[in-house]
Write a structure and sequence with these properties.
The structure is a single chain. By secondary structure, the chain is α+β, with helices and mostly antiparallel strands. The chain folds into 2 domains: about 80 residues, lambda repressor-like DNA-binding domains (434 Repressor (Amino-terminal Domain)), CATH 1.10.260; about 190 residues, Endonuclease, Chain A, CATH 3.30.870. About 50% of the residues lie in helices and about 15% in strands. The chain is elongated and about 75 Å long. The protein starts with a strand and ends in an 8-residue tail after the last helix.
Length: about 300
């Protein structure tokens, strides 16, 4: 018999069966279905509407089938051509919600790396309880300036945005001031792989590990590390941040997802609880021992100055 996850307050979280959580694709498909409805009500075929708007027919098809997100100009043009201008405002609200859910990096970083960090600063200021799971890299709130620079340089190479790395690093480090506010709570869960991945020079990683040890001793910061020998209850498929009970944030290669529907945040809350209480996870001194072991690993890459 499979047991649920035992929480720190004594409650048992039951294993959950398959759950359908509305996705960004669902939201895009729903918007496309509404656009199709307006076209059909106007007694226009897809080709006729495309001709009226001077669009390729494929664009109408992609919008209606949720394979492309319309712009606000597309919606205004569509509602005008279908004599449904009164529907434009509601559709634009749906579009704004969709764009909040799915924020493409190419669009977000168009003006540089710093503005996105400033946006996160404002969001973090409103958040009181942070739950963060990362299987690959050190979370931004725990990064040293040198580690942050390495992360931004990697992003810059992918997206061609490298003109404001210094400003982005400075803004990220300033964000970390919230770690010292007693009214805020932080629960970070990392995999041991985070301590070992070679995402920066060894000397940078050594400094980063030292900072993890220091921050793990803050009263309002709880740091858990899932060691290589731990058997997972839930696969560490991707990292995510839970901000209070209001939002789950996930970063992919192409976009930042912001999930705010209750069933979405509840699902990620259950997943975090499983990861944070998996049998064998290390906290406190045990977590710091794993960090120390990783530091010994990285120290072996340092040149022998006595030679």
């Amino acid at each position: 018999m499979q047991r649920g996850t035992r929480l720190s307050d004594g409650r048992t979280l039951p294993r959950s069966g398959p759950t359908h959580v509305p996705s960004v694709h669902d939201a895009r498909a729903a918007l496309g279905a509404r656009l199709r409805e307006l076209r059909v009500n106007a007694q226009l075929t897809g080709r006729q509407l495309a001709a009226l708007l001077h669009w390729p027919h494929s664009k109408v098809s992609k919008l209606e089938n949720g394979r492309q997100t319309p712009s606000s100009e597309d919606i205004r043009a569509w509602t005008g051509a279908t004599n449904a201008v009164s529907n434009a405002e509601a559709l634009l609200v749906s579009l704004q919600t969709l764009e909040t859910q799915y924020a493409e990096w190419q669009r977000q970083l168009r003006t540089g790396l710093k503005p996105h960090q400033a946006k996160l600063t404002e969001l973090n200021a409103r958040t009181r309880f942070f739950r963060v799971f990362e299987p690959t890299f050190v979370p931004g709130l725990l990064q040293t300036a040198e580690y942050a620079r390495a992360r931004f340089e990697q992003s810059g190479r992918v997206f061609g945005v490298r003109h404001d790395i210094d400003e982005a690093v400075q803004t990220r480090i300033q964000r970390q001031e919230i770690l010292y506010r007693p009214e805020k709570r932080f629960h970070f869960v990392l995999t041991e792989a985070v301590l070992r991945y070679r995402l920066c020079p060894p000397e940078v990683m050594l400094g980063q590990l030292d900072r993890l040890v220091s921050l793990s001793m803050l009263r309002n910061v709880k740091l858990g590390i899932i060691g290589f020998d731990v058997e997972y209850d839930v696969a560490p498929a991707h990292g995510f941040w839970l901000l209070d009970e209001d939002r789950a944030m996930i970063e992919t290669f192409s976009a930042e997802l912001n999930l705010a529907q209750p069933q979405e945040t509840e699902l990620y809350g259950r997943i975090f609880a499983r990861l944070a209480t998996v049998e064998g996870i290390s906290y406190g001194r045990d977590a710091r021992n794993l960090i120390a072991n990783a530091a010994e690993h990285w120290a072996a890459y340092q040149p022998d100055e006595s030679a």
